[in-house]
Design goal:
With 583 residues, the chain is mainly β. It is built from one helix and 47 strands. The strands form twelve sheets. The protein has a five-stranded antiparallel beta sheet with strand order 1-32-33-34-35, with no helix packed on it. A four-stranded antiparallel beta sheet has the order 3-30-29-28, with no helix packed on it. Strands 4-5-6-7 form a four-stranded antiparallel beta sheet, with no helix packed on it. A hairpin with a 2-residue loop joins strand 41 and strand 42 (490-495).
């Protein structure tokens, strides 16, 4: 039985969170139904729809590198453009490949014309000669990629040379280390500080190497592993670290490298398999906030499913897809920012994916609708095994909503179901009976399949004069086959086998527990019950025989997170999440 909320004497508003969209057959929908897509294109002010790269600076602004459109800074509302024609913000070329920021708030812009520098504080270009020690020749060769490493150095390349530029405390050039290698002479070279150690991984003629500075002004390339030796004509487009594994995107599919075991697994496109990669030519990788790996291709996105070790394809041309997320399948780059996913395409500009909010539906009383919820505040909610929702209200009786329905049936004192119309706690036992606690009329046992039939009413008159008129919590205990009754004055246990109410704690402790409200049985078989003076934790396995009536217990009286404060804790509700955490 699933208990989603224990009754409260306070006025509680029902907030039922419902996912509006139904489950769909297509794999795309499994991912897509959780996101809304917004498209940022030339219609919204972009100079071009061909996005090469997306970068977020330290101030939160997003910089879009455009093929043929220069560079644009986006603040969520407006653009500031940089290109070869913007007089005060002139760039060497309109074909910008990517940008990176150094620790001195300077933006390094790589393009077909070389490298430009922009002061992020003023948004004005910086002349290379203003950066002491930086050779002008280093800035004037076509550059496809720039990277900033974990130590604050900038990596760039020109021709067949890779450079690592280090800075002093003033932001001037401290040293430049370089590597000459024929494998660097590529127009789409990518390198990344994947280990966050101030070195970069790069593919040199198909061999993955780790490049680090050596003595003098040299960089040294050392192969990472024999397992990472690929064909010489392969193009590596991205590296990304996810947990202890490194994923490598290439022109020949996706590689998954387990560093601990030095093992590589290869994923490829398989004709006719909708759960393989959608294409072998990969362009970028990203990991979302909830650890999902996204693989970009020129044929849409692929979402890795670690449980099945396969992929969900996201494309705008999948048969039967009514609401595709992408306006273009030609994806060049991906950047994640919190729960948002920025996707740069060749023809559709930016596709921005934003998580959908869960829909809030408020059930409340409508005097014109007899099937609406009873009037007045809600005190208790219980969901049974069949998904039926039982709702107790103040002076409005008990409400029943069948699974899939949006209307309620009402059970009250007037129609004979209840001894009192203020329902404050609800549970169900193994005999399919509903236990309904009231605030003033004791406990009503109803037949769950026919709630209008009241089977029994428990009051002080038939329960040893125990003060159980005012009930704050009810919890069925399958371990001891009974129901725990938290009353305004005392905690009691109804033994279903003996059909009698007992006092479960020694030395009259139970009678002195006041204001019971909210309870739960955790996965370890302990009952937690809140009251006006903290919480009582009862070991349900400590009653060895049915004759023995008492249980072991603990009492946490003071603030749970600061017991030394001496402040008395007041607990009103419990919930245990799927991972076992008790809230």
């Amino acid at each position: 039985m699933k208990k989603i909320l224990i009754g409260s004497l306070h006025f509680i508003t029902i907030l039922l969170w419902l996912l509006l969209l139904p489950d769909r057959i297509l794999a795309q929908e499994a991912f897509a139904k959780h996101y809304n897509a917004t498209y940022i294109t030339m219609d919204e002010g972009l100079p071009a729809n061909f996005i090469e790269d997306i970068f977020q600076d330290s101030q939160g602004f997003v910089w879009l590198s455009l093929s043929g459109g220069g560079l644009s800074r986006y603040d969520g509302y407006e653009f500031i453009h940089f290109n070869s024609n913007t007089f005060h913000r002139k760039l060497k070329s309109n074909f910008v490949r990517c940008v990176r920021e150094d620790r001195f708030h300077r933006l390094w812009v790589s393009s077909e014309g070389g490298v430009d520098l922009i002061d992020l504080r003023t948004l004005q270009p910086l002349r290379p000669d203003k950066l002491k020690g930086l050779p002008a020749t280093l800035m004037n060769h076509p550059v496809s990629h720039i990277e900033a490493d974990a130590e604050g150095c900038i990596w760039t390349h020109d021709g067949n040379r890779l450079h690592r530029i280090a800075f002093n405390a003033a932001g001037n050039i401290e040293s430049i280390h370089s590597l000459n290698h024929a494998g660097i002479q590529k127009s789409n070279l990518v390198f990344k500080d994947i280990e966050q150690k101030g070195t970069v991984w790069i593919s040199l003629n198909g061999q993955i190497c780790n490049v680090s500075p050596q003595g003098g002004d040299r960089l040294q390339a050392v192969p990472v592993s024999r397992s990472l030796n690929f064909a010489p004509d392969i193009t590596i487009s991205d590296f990304i670290l996810k947990e202890h594994e490194i994923w490598i995107a290439s022109s020949q599919g996706l590689y998954r490298y387990d560093r601990n075991n030095d093992v590589v697994k290869h994923y490829e496109y398989v004709t006719g398999d909708p759960n393989s990669l959608s294409q072998n030519f990969l362009t970028a990788l990203a990991v979302t906030e909830n650890k999902q790996l996204i693989v970009a291709t020129l044929c849409g996105l692929n979402i890795y499913n670690p449980l099945k070790d396969n992929f969900e394809q996201i494309r705008n041309d999948l048969p039967g897809s009514k609401t595709p997320l992408l306006n273009s399948n030609f994806v060049n780059c991906i950047t994640t920012e919190g729960r948002h996913i920025w996707i740069g395409t060749e023809s559709g500009g930016i596709n921005l994916l934003t998580p959908k909010r869960l829909a809030l539906q408020n059930f409340r009383h409508d005097k014109e609708n007899p099937g609406s919820l009873s009037r007045n505040p809600v005190n208790a909610i219980y969901e049974d095994e069949a998904g039926t929702l039982w709702v107790g209200t103040v002076e409005g009786g008990l409400n029943r909503q069948a699974k899939g329905s949006h209307s309620f049936q009402h059970y009250t004192y007037e129609n004979g179901s209840l001894s009192h119309n203020s329902v404050s706690a609800i549970t169900a036992d193994a005999e399919d009976r509903l236990w309904v606690g009231t605030w003033g009329g004791g406990i009503n046992l109803l037949e769950k399949k026919n709630p209008q039939r009241r089977l029994q009413t428990l009051t002080p008159a038939n329960c040893n004069n125990y003060p159980i008129y005012f009930i704050g919590s009810l919890t069925y205990d399958s371990i001891n086959n009974g129901v725990w009754v938290g009353a305004n004055e005392g905690l009691y246990f109804y033994d279903l086998k003996q059909e009698k109410m007992i006092v479960p704690l020694p030395d009259s402790i139970a009678r002195n527990i006041h204001g019971c409200i909210g309870s739960i049985i955790d996965r370890d078989g302990r009952l937690w019950i809140g009251c006006l003076e903290g919480t009582y934790i009862i070991d349900l396995h400590s009653r060895h025989t049915a004759v023995q009536e008492q249980f072991r217990y603990r009492h946490l009286k003071y603030k749970l997170d600061q017991p030394e404060s001496g402040l008395i804790e007041k607990i009103v509700c419990f919930h245990q999440s799927e991972d076992g955490t008790l809230w």
